[in-house]
Amino acid sequence: MTTEQSEQAGQGEQGEPPVPVPVPVEDQVPVADQPPAEESAEAPAETPTVAPPLPPMPEAPPAVVFEPVPPVKKDRRVLRAVLRWTAAVVVFAAVGTSAAYGITRMERTDVPGLATEPDGRWEYPTISKPPLPSGSPGPFAEANTAGAHYADLRRLVLPAPKGAKADAALRGEDGWLPAKTFLAEYATKEERADVGQLLTDYGLRHIAARGWTTPDGTHTRIYLLQFGTAAVADELVSNELMSFNSPVYAARGTELVSADAGLAEVAQVPDVTRYAYAETKPYGPEQVRQAYLSAADTIAVVLQSRKGTAKAIPFQQTVVLQSQLLG
Question: Were both Cys, which of 2, 7, 14, 296 would link to 139 (CB 3.0–4.6 Å)?
Answer without folding.
Answer: 296
